[in-house]
Amino acid sequence: MKIVEKGFFLLFSIKFIVLNQIKSDLKIPNWIVHNKWAKKAGIDKLIADFVNRNIDYGTSWAFTEGDNELYIEEYESTVVKQLNFFHQKDVEKEDKHKSYVKAYYLHHLLDYFRETRINIYEINTVFDQFLKEKIETETVNNEGNKVNFLKEIHQIFDFLRKNKEELYSDLKGGYFSN
User: Fold this and answer.
1) Domain parsing of the chain, residue ranges
2) What are the beta bridge partners of residue 138?
3) Which secondary-structure segment (H or E) carries 140?
C-alpha cells in the first residue's frame, strides 16, 4: 500500500472511530425530549403528543376507509403518508402556523440525529442530509396542488441551530440530569 493510501486509510479509520464514539453517546430521543423541544418551538403539547404517538406507533388507522379518507397512493412511503396526514390536520384546524407539520418535521429530525452516521456537531451537514435522505419537503393537497414546507423546515432548523448546545446535551441524555 502506498503511503498516501495508508494515510487516507488511517484518517478514515480515526474519523470512523470518533463518529462511532459520538453515536454511542447519543440516546434515542424519548417523548420527554420530543415534547420538551416541541414546547420550546411553540408547538401545543396536545399536538406534539398526537404527532409523536402517530409517528412512533403508526398511523395505519388514519388511512382506513371512512368519512375522513384521504387520497393516498399505494406506492407512497410511510413518511409521505404521515406528511399528508399532518398537513391535512393543519388544514382542518385552519392552523396557519402549521403546528402538526412542524411537529412532524421536528420529531423526524430529532430521531435523525441518532440515526445518521454524520457527525452531529456539523449541524448544517446533518440538516442537508436530513433533507436528502429522510423526508419530503412538499406534498400534493386534495385539490392536486403542490404544497411546499421549506419555510417550516427552515424555521425548525434555525430554532435547533440557535439552541444546539442544549440539543446536544439532551441527545446525550442530559435532559435527565438538568
Assistant:
1) 28-176
2) 148
3) strand 138-140
Average pLDDT score over residue span 164-177: 80
Q: State the cell numbers at 129.
A: 442530509
Confidence of residue 147 (pLDDT cuts 50, 70, 90): very high
Q: Which one, of 154, 32, 57, 161, lies nearest residue 102 by Cα?
A: 154
Residue holding cell 495508508? 6
Q: How far, in Å, CA of 161 to CA of 124, rounded?
A: 8
Residue whose C-alpha cell reads 442530509 in the numeric block: 129
Only one residue has cell 424555521, namely: 155
Query: Nearest CA to 108 among 131, 74, 75?
Result: 131
Give the C-alpha separation, 68 to 88, whole Å. Answer: 10
- Cell 435532559 -> residue: 175
The single-letter DSSP state of residue 62 is: G
Q: Output the pTM of the full model.
A: 0.77
What pLDDT does 116 receive? 86
**What's the pLDDT tens digit per position in 34-89?**
999 999 999 999 999 999 999 988 766 555 544 444 444 555 688 888 999 999 99
Pairing of strands 146-148, 138-140: antiparallel
